[in-house]
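Sample intake sheet
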Amino acid sequence: MPLETGTEAEGKVTGVAKFGAFIELSTREAGLVHISQISNSYVTDINQHIKVGDIVKVKVLGTGKNGKYDLSIKLMRQTAAIPKPFVSRPAVQKERPQPGTLEDKITQFLKQSDERLLGLKKNTEGKQGVRKRKKKKVETLNI
């Protein structure tokens, strides 16, 4: 009977590799706990956290290739030790100017956009080396 995602199970560590630990579940099925799912802290050496023969509680994250399970030990440890809630300071509110009419806002927006476009034009003309060219005289033929 296959395990569903989110199911908690118990298993025995059958192998340890650089990338994770192989677990044989009580249902005689195999799974892998990736190194990122071993602990809440950064894991450089799996052997410091888990050893072959250990009995561990795992949570099923999903089914992987070849019908093996993706497992997590980290999620089981998270539910055991719930961290303290974050307490923030009350925010200091800045005084904002009173909103004006729609026409005032549009006028202010147009003024700001014209100033920005003028600055952008000056900046790009200076970089492109725009030169004033002499107009060529065009002769017209009178027939």
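Comment: The beta strands are 8-17, 20-25, 30-34, 55-63, 69-72. The two ends are 100 Å apart (CA to CA).
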